[in-house]
């Protein structure tokens, strides 16, 4: 199968068709119409085999995951996801693999009303680059720079499961089959908090998605907002699978530093705290308060039951030798 045959079979004409797409797959560029008084949010991620996913990851899971991580970025800005383009580099054309991969991709795209509008295919080491777009009412975007002294810090769900899934495979951790299945699902099929992100608009003061770990990602907010924070680590939500597998001391590096969870981490004023919690519950999201913003210049203090807590591990960073 040649390149254009591949595109026609697995991408053109599949998935949803949005009314705001004027020209989709099949030309030099796609054309879309952006609503009046809206801003276009654009995010791009590259996933490389052996770096971001295991070589034997189920292709349907990979199709889901490559789009989910981009939708999570849009959610962190409060955007409504709309369009996506995909650059797919393949070692060879494996029809069975492609069918499963595109099934996973189109499933999540349809669920969030996102249309695949273009991209590229080429031959080489398995690498997938996704450029996702979304729309936000003008001036309503959430950023990392809005946290204010006195704001409360919330996270939308349990952290550390993706890291536990990865290390269970690498280290052979003593984990039950049921718990292993639960954490692998969190890693293979992350759920972007798209609805929650839109609820945060106008209520939260800053937001970010937890891709590199709570400590690293909260650090981005603190530096951009020029504030400090304190986090009570015992309040950070964890899953039952995590509790059953690791002791409290063992779990902290996973919960605070591992990343790949794609929950939203956000700040909210005391005035909006209750309103936001109630609105999120309408979408099945029970955000947990884990700390508070303080005056300062970008420093984070961790405490465990009132005592200072030191965590040497950091979030994932490309090109780091550590």
TrEMBL record:
| PurM-like N-terminal domain segment(s) | 26-136
Its pathway, per UniProt, is: Cofactor biosynthesis; thiamine diphosphate biosynthesis; thiamine diphosphate from thiamine phosphate: step 1/1
Q: Which domain of life is it from?
A: Bacteria
Positions annotated to bind ATP: 119-120, 144, 211
Record's keyword annotation contains Cell cycle: no
Q: What class of enzyme is it?
A: transferase
Per UniProt, residues of the PurM-like C-terminal domain are 148-297
**What keywords appear on the UniProt entry?**
ATP-binding, Kinase, Magnesium, Metal-binding, Nucleotide-binding, Thiamine biosynthesis, Transferase
| Cited function | Catalyzes the ATP-dependent phosphorylation of thiamine-monophosphate (TMP) to form thiamine-pyrophosphate (TPP), the active form of vitamin B1.
Would you tell me the protein name for this molecule? Answer: Thiamine-monophosphate kinase
Species whose genome carries this gene: Pseudoalteromonas xiamenensis
Taxonomic path: Bacteria, Pseudomonadati, Pseudomonadota, Gammaproteobacteria, Alteromonadales
Tell me the gene name: thiL
